[in-house]
């Protein structure tokens, strides 16, 4: 409630001051006030429409999109309030003089239409800022009713103060007023930075910097006055994350320095140019350090994956090089060519899926089988559907094979692999009334075969768990590296570019002033103390 009250008071008073000054000027010059009030009311109505529309659009979106829109609204609100604080900190004392000079210029054309437009645009600007800022504050508030009550009370107080200033009964030191409210709004805006970063994470936009820092649950218990201050007013959650702490400090420290810096010690024009250049250089240096230091460490996993047979016994190793899988077993080494078939989820992580066919075939297998050989091939049992007395053999044997090979990669390493080979035997003759088909189990010994029937193999599950965990860690580390090593340096370089541009423009302006007068080229609006009285 306190946050929205201050927002309503400050934004409303800014609009009230401009309207009051314009109204007083029109009255002194004998011009009617009705057109101006029409423009003011139109601006207020349009501001309400903007706020209601933004709220309605947000509520109509899916949950993730709502979180994303809250992040955007919060970011826009921070930008607006920052610009408002900086502008009013510079122009508060000279506000009346600047507006009256503009009013005289407007009336020089013989019409008050320009003044009506001025009042309309001023109220529309403040109304739009108020709508966005209050909407962002409502989203961060734990109680929308009290937040709305605070905003209404703040606006009413602003109207009363504006009427008092217009009537001549109230004098306000605007510099002190805007400085005091500016400090509070800097704290609120810093909380909005935290809230915007939190909703950006909930929207799936920001997954880096989510490490826990400090637990404020003991300092600001839920439901307590301190908890309401931290979460409801300052927007600081109890479980604040690393990126949120960073954003909070990066906004709060420089803004408080700007607001609280003593007027007598503020740098002159030339020193201001040098200060901007120095800060820009520091930002570039910090960006370079982050880009170099924010690099993920590669995971430590074995070069080859252990494989096991169908019984779980060690059967060799498998390694991947490009799209070729090499399997080393006691019986020799085999290399398989694989082709990529897409991405799937394997072992709890996103993995590339490769497929192939292991070499094999039915060459060399017997064309006929006796009953004893058939029993041996079937693991010592007579196959189902064959009667040894009625169907004594020998049987005509037709062989076929079904085999496939799959491999999965994560983080450029072999995550998992599995080979399956199924030998199918179709029997006819030997007294059989019809053909019989059966699957020959792995390990069966066939007449004339050099080795038992091979079965499938898989990568050891412990290895899969280890590599999948390393892959998830690497993905998280890469996301962190992209954020701290690319996104943050990009922001720092953008800030440096803006500062250098401002320094360049300022230096050009100073170059047009004769040398002895450069340090006094700008008017120090903070050296005089004046009260504003409209009337």
Topology:
Elements: H1 2-28, H2 34-60, H3 63-91, H4 95-107, H5 113-140, H6 144-167, H7 174-202, H8 225-233, H9 242-260, H10 269-293, E1 305-309, E2 314-321, E3 324-329, E4 332-337, E5 339-346, E6 349-356, E7 368-369, H11 371-377, E8 395-410, E9 413-428, E10 436-440, E11 457-459, H12 461-511
Antiparallel strand pairs: 1-2, 1-11, 2-3, 3-4, 5-6, 6-8, 7-8, 8-9, 9-10, 9-11
Overall tally of structural domains: 2
Order of helices and strands: HHHHHHHHHHEEEEEEEHEEEEH
Q: Please tally the β strands and state the result.
A: 11
Class based on secondary structure composition and strand pairing:
alpha+beta
User: What composes the largest sheet?
Assistant: 11 strands, antiparallel
Tell me the β content. 15-25%
**Which range best describes the helical content: under 10%, 10-25%, 25-40%, 40-55%, 55-70% or over 70%?**
40-55%
What's the N-to-C terminus distance? 33 Å
Oligomeric status: single chain
Number of helices: 12
* Low-confidence segments: 517-535
Q: Averaged pLDDT, please?
A: 78
- State the shape: elongated
Radius of gyration: 39 Å
């Amino acid at each position: 409630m306190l946050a929205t009250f201050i927002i309503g008071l400050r934004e409303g008073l800014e609009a009230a001051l401009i309207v009051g000054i314009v109204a007083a000027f029109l009255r002194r010059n004998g011009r009617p006030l009705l057109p101006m009030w029409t423009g003011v009311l139109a601006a207020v109505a349009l501001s309400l429409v903007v706020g209601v529309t933004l709220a309605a659009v947000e509520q109509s979106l899916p949950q993730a999109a709502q979180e994303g829109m809250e992040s955007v609204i919060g970011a826009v609100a921070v930008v607006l309030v920052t610009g408002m604080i900086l502008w009013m900190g510079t122009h508060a004392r000279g506000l009346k003089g600047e507006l009256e000079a503009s009013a005289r210029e407007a009336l020089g054309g013989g019409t008050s239409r320009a003044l009506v437009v001025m009042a309309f645009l001023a109220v529309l600007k403040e109304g739009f800022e108020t709508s966005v800022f209050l909407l962002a504050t409502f989203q961060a508030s734990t109680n929308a009713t009290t937040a709305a009550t605070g905003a209404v009370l703040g606006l009413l107080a602003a109207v009363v103060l504006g009427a008092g200033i217009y009537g001549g009964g109230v004098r306000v030191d605007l510099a002190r007023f805007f400085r005091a409210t500016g400090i509070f709004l800097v704290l609120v805006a810093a909380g909005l930075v935290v809230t915007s970063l939190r909703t950006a994470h909930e929207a799936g936009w920001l997954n880096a910097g989510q490490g826990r820092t400090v637990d404020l649950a003991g300092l600001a218990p839920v439901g307590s006055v301190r908890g309401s201050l931290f979460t409801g007013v300052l927007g600081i959650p109890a479980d604040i994350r690393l990126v949120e702490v960073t954003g909070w400090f990066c906004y709060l420290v420089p803004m408080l320095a700007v607001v609280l810096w003593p007027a007598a010690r503020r740098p002159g024009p030339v020193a201001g140019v040098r200060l901007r250049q120095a800060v820009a250089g520091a930002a570039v240096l910090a960006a370079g350090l982050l880009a170099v230091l924010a690099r993920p460490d590669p995971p430590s996993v074995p070069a080859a994956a252990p494989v096991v047979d169908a019984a779980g016994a060690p059967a060799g190793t498998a390694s991947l090089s490009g799209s070729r899988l090499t399997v080393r077993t006691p019986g020799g080494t085999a290399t398989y060519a694989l082709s990529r078939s897409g991405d799937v989820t394997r072992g709890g992580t996103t993995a590339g899926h490769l497929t192939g066919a292991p070499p094999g075939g039915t060459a060399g297998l017997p064309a006929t089988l006796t009953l004893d050989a058939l029993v041996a091939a079937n693991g010592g049992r007579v196959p189902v559907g064959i009667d040894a007395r009625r169907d004594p053999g020998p049987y005509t044997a037709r062989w076929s094979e079904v085999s496939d090979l799959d491999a999965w990669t994560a983080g450029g390493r072999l995550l998992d692999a599995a080979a399956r080979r199924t030998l199918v035997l179709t029997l006819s003759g030997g007294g059989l009334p019809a053909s019989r088909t059966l699957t020959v189990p792995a390990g069966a010994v066939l007449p004339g075969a050099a080795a038992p029937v091979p079965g499938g193999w898989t990568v050891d599950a412990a290895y899969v768990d280890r590599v999948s965990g390393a892959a998830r860690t690497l993905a998280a580390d890469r996301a962190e590296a992209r954020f701290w090593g690319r996104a943050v340096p990009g922001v720092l370089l953008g800030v440096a570019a803006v500062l250098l541009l401002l320094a360049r423009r300022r230096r050009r302006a100073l170059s047009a002033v004769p040398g002895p007068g450069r340090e006094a080229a700008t008017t120090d609006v903070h050296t005089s103390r004046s009260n504003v009285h409209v009337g």
